[in-house]
Amino acid sequence: MKNRFAVALAAALVLTSAGCSLDSKAPAAGEVTVVIGYQSKTINTVTAGTLLKAKGFFEQRLGDITKRTNVKYTVQWQDYDTGAPITAQMLAEKIDIGSMGDYPLLINGSKTQANERAKTELVSVTGYNAKGALNMVVVKPNSPAHTLTDLAGQKVSASVGSAGHGTLVRALTKAGIDPKTGVEVLNQQPQVGASALESGQVQALAQFVAWPGLLAFQNKARLLFDGAELNVPTFHGVVVRRDYAGQHPEVLDAFLQAQLDATDFLHQKPLEAAQLVAQDTGLPQEVVYLYNGPGGAVSFDTTLKPSLIDALKSDVPYLKSIGDFADLNIDQFVVDGPLRKAFADRNLNYDSAVAATANPITVSGQDPVCNVAVTDPALAGELWIDGHTTTQPAANPGCLLRAIRDANAKGEKVIAAYVPDAELGTRWFADHSVWVHSPGSDTNFLPFDTDAGAQRYIAAHPGAAVVDYQQALAGAV
User: Which of 147, 276, 286 is nearest to 218 (CA)?
Assistant: First the structure.
């Protein structure tokens, strides 16, 4: 199985997405070209990819340099489905800056370090989740599987070497299933795996955002395992070829400044940011906002936090489990100097930002149904009603259920309703949550994003029971 993983990963590293240009156009005299590798549909990288590109922040920053120096800059954007082909192109010195998940970052650093011109450095984070909720495992809606152990002996689709695959390996190991022999992992690109799940060729799909939420939203999948159960931080970050950064430090500085611009925009206008990303990627806006909205699974924060770096170090054994990779010195791979400079240039305190751990954007405001202020991020929900220019906050799950019921009674169309999982805190769709009637609890009805989570609560609270979504809506008080 290990050899199969190694062969699959090697194949992934040489494949590129159809339609992407592989060769950079030769720059004219006095012109500098920078090639950016990004993953448009991996929406926790949007501040270094899709949103950044849509808003033109990077080009604007480079344009400011041109005004001062007369040096012209050309930006080439190359879109991929996973991090592996970005690494392959960086190895070939054809991509200068790329963004990818934590496990692919490890592979990137390991693969490139032997070549001084290709050698990369991790210079910023795009988004992270402190518990690991960026990666999930889904099954078909009618699947008999309700816990991860139910997958023993089954076929699971995953992109070998991806963050989703890394979480699967960790989760199976924790559940007592050998990830090499206990399941059959099919190495597939996310969209191929989604089709395989729908057709029944595989029994589960392990992927990173936004695929689990997308398939649930489309009623094609049910969440089986939330990566937050592992309670291990997961993140996506930005790598740069050290040789390129040495030759063009002003380009890296402009990129990091632009990433901060995109991050600020997302924090200030999360709904508009989600809509822009949806327009550019073809993903439903409701799915993008699930993850990237206030209180979503993604905390958009560029800083290289010690907790994230420690998690990266703990991921190293994963490399050994899937192939023969060179040892990577994480402390040398992570370089925060350029980002510290970007912060200083904006008169921002980098150390204070590193120490911050709360999601920078949370659901807030006045709950119009329960007529109370929304103050607890662990309980706060959000309602998106068609025709409204803003979303409606809900102080707790009970208030959210009442708001949905009221909107339905008025004939208003609910575009989406979001609620945090009562156990793990992961934001999920209210109509795809598992609702538990818990007499005596603060809100009477509690949402869980998986059957397993609901059953853990019921086991600890006699009298609690699962109810369907319509029962929860009818019973909310």
Answer: 286
Q: What angle, 0 to 180 degrees and rounded to 10, lies between the N-to-C axes of helices 249-268 and 57-69?
A: 140
**Euclidean distance between CA atoms 256 and 346, whole angstroms:** 11
Question: CA dist 191 to 82, 199, 205, 263, 282, Å?
Answer: 11, 12, 10, 27, 13
- Which residues, 6 or more positions from 47, have their beta carbon under 8 angstroms from its beta carbon? 126, 127, 259, 262, 263, 266, 300, 302
Residue 376 pLDDT more than 90?
A: yes
Residue matched to tokens 């598992």: 434
Residue 266 sits in a domain whose CATH number is 3.40.190.10
317 lies in the same domain as 436: no
Residues paired with residue 206 on neighbouring β-strands, in sequence order: 137, 158
pLDDT at 119: 98
Residue-number span of the structural domain to which 226 is assigned: 135-230
Query: Residue 79: which residues within 8 A CB-CB, separation 6 or more?
Result: 17, 20, 38, 39, 40
Least confident piece of the model among 7-11, 171-175, 187-191, 208-212 = 7-11
Place of tokens 């990566």: 227
Kindly state the DSSP code that residue 431 receives in the 8-state scheme: G
Q: Are residues 382 and 415 in the same domain?
A: yes
pTM exceeds cut of 0.70: yes
- Per-residue CA distances from 116 to 13, 92, 294, 393 (Å): 19, 12, 41, 51
